[in-house]
Every structure is written in C-alpha cells, then in structure tokens.
Amino acid sequence: MTNPEHASAHLNEVVVEYRDAIAIVRICRPHKRNAINDGLMSAIGQRFRDMPDHIRAVVLCGEGEHFCAGLDLSELKERDAAEGLHHSRSWYYVLRDIEQGTRPIVAALHGAVVGGGLELATACHIRVADDSTFFALPEGSRGIFVGGGGSVRIPKLIGAHRMLDMMLTGRVYKAAEGVSIGMAQYHVPKGQALDKAIELAERIAQNAPMTNYALLNGLPRIAEQAADHGFFTESLIAGIAQSTPEAKARVKAFLDGTGPKVKA
Q: Residues 120, 148: contact at Cβ < 8 Å?
C-alpha cells in the first residue's frame, strides 16, 4: 500500500483545481521534469482518494515543459531487491485506483511522456498529446525494467513488439506517430493539450455516473473475457445501467424530444 507519511510530504507537488464537476490534478515538480518518486506517487494517490463526491471527471497534467519524465532514478541507488518489489507494488495500487476508479481521467500530455510517465498516462482513460509530446521507454539502456504496470498496459495499446522495440532500441515516438499507433487518442497543436483535455472532461462529466463507472470497470474486463463470458457480463452491466433513475430520465427526455441528439 502507499505510505501516508510519504504522501503528506509531497502533497505540495500535486495541486488540484476544481471547476464545477471536473478537477484538474497537476504534477508540480518542473525542476525534475515532473519525475516521480514513491512519495510523489503516494501524493497523487492521496489527491485522487480525497476527490469530492461532486467531481465526475478529472484532468491530469504536468507543470512546466513536460508531462512526466518517468521515475526519479536517484531513488534506485541504494534499493535492494525486496525494496524494489515493494516500490513497484506501491505504484500498482495507485495506478489501479486511477484506472479502475469511479471517474474518467483525461491526461493532457506535452513534452516528455517517458518511462514511468508513460505508465502513468496509460493508466488514464483518454490521452491528448500536443505537438511537443514524445513517448519513450529508456529502461533498457539503463539496465532496468518497467515497474509501474507498463508491461501490462502499454502492449494493450500498441502491441508487445512495438513496446519491445522501444525498450531494446530506445526508439522515441513523437506526437503524431504516437497517436497513430495508439499511445493517445487526440493530437492537438503545441500548448493546446490542457484546453482539449478540459473540454473532453467537461463533456464526460455530463454522462450518467453509472454509465461512466460501467465503461471504466466493465469494458476492459469484457475485452479480456471469452466471447460467451463477455456477452453475459455485458448483459448484466446493461441491465444495471439502464435501471438507474438518471438513465430512465435521460431515455424519457430523448423519447419526448427534449434530450440531446447525436450530431456529425
């Protein structure tokens, strides 16, 4: 589990701004290119756990010129195998709670999205990359291995052999190519990632909370199930989602012509 004492010492490096139904969580360690140590990761987890009930979507971004340059390697100097294991597990807990939480997370990416920064980004649900963004996994050249869930999440986006290439050769993907292979879903001009992420979060926040929860927690599991199991899981989730009062009100509004229509 994460360490509350570590979190409290780094809360000033994770700033939260509330705008109606959305929150903007900003990593503020620009002098380190927003590189993450265990304390900062604990603080990120704490900020998400402390989110007010009225918040329906979150934007995650980085202060300064970079989203996140990965693990603060100064933490590795004296770490033994057991400490490395516990370090890795502590990241899993935080990133699992982000990925499988109740609120969709939109990552606004710019500059370095490297190593642990890419692992953090892939735990989010939607990623917006501006033209300054570059993606890399330099662990291979540093004699280490990904430890924040990257070997599970990243191949699901780009395939195992693309990740293998990145780690073996140090290949760097710039924004446009990274988006084309699935690193992010949106590509915007330099400096516009945060505005686009906020726009998306505001749209997402208008959805029924139960539908958002079902998408975050049901869809990834269904995608990994055998087809027959997936169909059954889908039917269960569909039944639950459509039974909520908010869903009934939204369907009624659509049928009587007062609800929003799909537009091209």
A: yes
